[in-house]
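> call design_seq(struct)
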């Protein structure tokens, strides 16, 4: 895999986690095991680990993503930023059940469907 394919795969993985409520219930509520994660880990994995948020700010996403994907990821980033301010003191179950998390799941699923 070249670097753009790796980047795309990591974005897909992050979108899958943010769009999958069943996974969130398993991994975000788990205290040990092979599937342990959190809202914070999910957004860091998608936006920070590979520089997606920086790329979105610069408008320089790899060419593997169409323009509509860029827009969807930008909108998702804005939604996540707004939600993160409210979620920082909430327990995982409250985050999963929060109406803003449902909006995040919906938009992440829409972006993911466009990528595939």
């Amino acid at each position: 895999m070249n670097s753009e394919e790796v980047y795309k795969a990591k974005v897909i993985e992050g979108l899958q986690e943010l769009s999958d409520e069943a996974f969130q219930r398993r991994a975000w509520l788990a205290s040990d095991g092979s599937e342990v994660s959190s809202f914070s880990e999910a957004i860091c994995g998608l936006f920070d680990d590979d520089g997606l948020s920086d790329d979105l700010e610069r408008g320089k996403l790899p060419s593997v993503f169409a323009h509509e994907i860029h827009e969807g990821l930008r909108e998702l980033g804005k939604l996540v930023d707004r939600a993160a301010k409210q979620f920082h003191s909430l327990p995982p179950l409250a985050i999963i059940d929060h109406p803003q998390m449902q909006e995040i799941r919906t938009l992440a699923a829409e972006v993911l469907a466009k990528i595939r």
